[in-house]
Amino acid sequence: MADTATVSRSVAFLGLGTMGFPMAGHLAVRGGHPVTVFNRTAAKAEAWTARFGGASAPTPADAAREAEVVFLCVGGDDDVRAVAGEAMGAMKPGTIVADHSTVSATVSREMAELARERGLFFLDAPVSGGQAGAENGVLTVMVGGDADAFARAQPLMACYGRSVTHMGPAGAGQLTKMVNQICIAGLLQGLAEGMAFAQKAGLDGHRVVDVIGKGAAQSWQMDNRAKTMLDGKFDFGFAVDWMRKDLGIVLDEARNNGASLPVTALVDQFYAEVQGMGGNRLDTSSLMTRLTR
Description:
Keywords: NAD, Oxidoreductase. The chain is α/β, with parallel strands linked by helices and about 290 residues long. About 55% of the residues lie in helices and about 15% in strands.
């Protein structure tokens, strides 16, 4: 990992959920940067400062006012508009906003234009790697926006990103994350079907995974989720509700650009079935549950 502690920079982090809480922590601990945090639930910000130091602020504007780089990790398009919009009203010219939320490319381009009008820079920088990746500081970060702003922000993102890559202009980071979610959805459904088939066939599923995991079927999902799927464990962070939100963004974008996504649309409906079974907060590997009920 790159040396991220050579220059201390004042930063803000807005949104301390499952992902944002540890990411902001890595900026403070690994990077050695003074961090001011904001969270809509103030108790979460107080818990963060108790653990990592730094400061908390009562509003996004107060958190962002003196920062050189402002990070954001919230829920959806309207959250980005509200939180980033308020924060940008208080920022000094030249400040960078790096949005780690998974949202539409449309809102990212909208916010990039708003930033440009105010003399700021906006980077759409969604992440992949889940809760474990955030906690261990090994996320994949895919970034859209101004190349010079990316170069300035990249060393900070390296505090929690094993891979931090500039993908193109505004919106390119979100579009890359959409590709990521398309691939994950198909992989997880295939893995669920394979594991359910192994059980129905009377095979030792764990041994099956040990064997085929050394061949062409190998994937990160197989390495990390196949055996837990067989064991009925589905509490590994990224919830079905969030995956459906992401797939909704993907399918909306596909309707706009003409991409054909039949498998993704089908898996989205399978996740709707899991929600109907009460699995809203189960992780994405819980596709297995609809095949084994």
